Amino acid sequence: MAKDDHLRQGATVGVAVSVTAGSVSGMVARAVTAPLDVIKIRLQLESYYNSHAKVPQYNGIIPTLKKIIATEGGIKRLWKGNIPAEIMYMLYGATQFTCYSTVNTFLTQTENRHNFKVPVSLHSLILGSVSGVFSTLVSYPFDVLRTRLASNRSKHFASMFGCSIDMLKHEGIKSFYSGIGTAVSGVSLSMGLTFFAYEFLRNLDSHYDELAFIEPISGFMAGIIAKSSTFPLDLIRRRLQVHRKWLGHERETFMTISKKIFIREGLRGFYSGLTPALLKTAPTTAISIWTYEYVVRGLEKAQAFG
Prior knowledge:
Blueprint: H1 15-49, H2 61-72, H3 82-114, H4 120-150, H5 160-170, H6 180-202, H7 214-242, H8 254-265, H9 274-305
């Protein structure tokens, strides 16, 4: 295995380096994949907003892309909600990789102290799940804001500040954590599977050092596996995030939303927007992990020469 795999079992990365590299990785990943995120959210919320429409407004990636550009004011509208999303991704990336590195060190020291060894894949699963939970709790209000802004169908950008004030006024502070239970469950499982799959795939080839693209390939496949497995939870979370009781919507819970989706749309309804989600998540995971590794190596070299 490569000596500079900073996510491997027993790897040690300083907190400052993890925070910096994690923030940069989140920022870069978000900037590249933002349009797919907006398209995914529109498809996930289509039946929620248009439950009685015979013809859906958004149906498929290309038609949705064309409709947003044509009716909302051009291509830049594909970056709606980008400010809170960038903040969210930076917070999420910094917390995720820092937590992963810190718990990795703690768990490895505990193993050495008590003379036992957790299997590599299980080790990655535990670290991914724990880091996913902490990252979600830290960044979640910006995730809710991102969803609200990305679901805005008008020609005008809604401001993050204006949306925040509106939520506080009409819905209270709790609205910034709408769907948090579903999010924690989904993200902990998703991130656990991501790091589990990433480390598993990286260790399949004994000639790792000869394969220059093993990191992005492993990250890409890990993203597909994790997102496909947990997508229904992500879809339900989005619908909980945009629920507005003060507008006359009935109170909705995880179970009521699940029943509505199944009755109206069948099992396929739980996977509305899966294609753009996979097109977004796989490269996001690959870019995020690759950027993290790249920045960590760069910072470590700078420290060595400093």
